[in-house]
Amino acid sequence: MPLSRIEESTTRNEGGVEFGGGRLAYAPGEATVADAMVRRPKLLPATATGGDAREFFHDDHVHAALVTDGDRLLTVIERQDLTEVREADPATALGTLSGRTVGSGADLWSTWTWMTALGVRRLAVVEDGRCVGLLCLKRSGRGFCCDAGVRARAQERNNHRGCVPQ
């Protein structure tokens, strides 16, 4: 048993939430959203269309499309936003920011609790209207994706397609 497990407070919540590729938070105040966010999420430009957004979601790991103008977040599109979209519709009109963003300084434990209670898997991370990352709850609900894990999945997909990244 690792030493850190023996020294843990018995007042902490069981299990904790994983972030940052192996770190754990057990209670409010132990980490922020910035500690757990993916820092280089895939983005759609402000010029994207409904067709571009549909193509973006062909990857089953994609749960949210962040539409930006430079680093300014314009909207967050989820799959259900695309049910009655025409190919030429502007992507900026398809999603919403309401309920789909979180500040980088927000408490990770509280955010995780809210996300798991409502079944939310992705939140765009913002600072002063700028998109600075994406908070990605793992399918298990017990932790958050990290940059290294996202890169490894992309590498694996490229290798399966016969592509070797440069």
Q: Nutshell version of this structure?
A:
The chain is α/β, with parallel strands linked by helices.
What does this structure look like?
- This protein has helices at 3-6, 33-36, 50-56, 108-118, 147-160; strands spanning 17-19, 23-25, 43-45, 65-69, 72-77, 101-103, 122-127, 130-136.
- By secondary structure, it is of the alpha/beta class.
- Strand 7 (122-127) and strand 8 form a beta hairpin.
- The chain is globular.
General shape: globular
Gyration radius, in Å: 17 Å
Termini separation comes to 41 Å
Low-confidence stretches: 1-13
Strand order of the largest sheet: 3-4-5
The overall pLDDT, averaged over residues, is 86
Largest sheet: 3 strands, mixed
State the order of secondary-structure elements, H for helix, E for strand. HEEHEHEEEHEEH
Tell me the strand percentage band: 15-25%
Helix content class? 10-25%
- The helix tally amounts to 5
SS elements, strand count: 8
